[in-house]
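Collaborator request, handled under Task 6.
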Amino acid sequence: PADLPELPAGAQAGSSTAIVTIGSTKFDALIRAVDCLEFAQALRRLGITKLKVQRGNGYMPATLLCEEIASMLEVEVVDYTPSMPEEIRQAALVISHAGAGTILDCLQAGRRLVVVPNEGLMANHQAQLGR
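Structure tokens returned to the collaborator:
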């Protein structure tokens, strides 16, 4: 994260929200990766004040496990939300599985996107999409 340019809170539609989404599948590795103090600190350095995590059908609880995150960010965890495309249009940053729909939503909305392929799905098709 140190070599990323600063992301001012107002850089994209005035939003200071980051979204982590894994679609309707299971991608616990990505959820675990964002459930740490270092990730929260990196978001704060980018001007992010709210984190929305759409956890899909994984086994992670409805709240993030790292309590220190809650002291730094407003956090919301949901299983699924049908309004995700609209929320993506308002986000400053999206971190996502390599789902075609999510990638297209971000590209169409001009959102900053970090793609993390879920290599455990369908013969690693997400790695191909993520390229």
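The cover message to the collaborator said: "The radius of gyration is 14 Å. The mean pLDDT is 80. Please let us know whether this matches your experimental observations."
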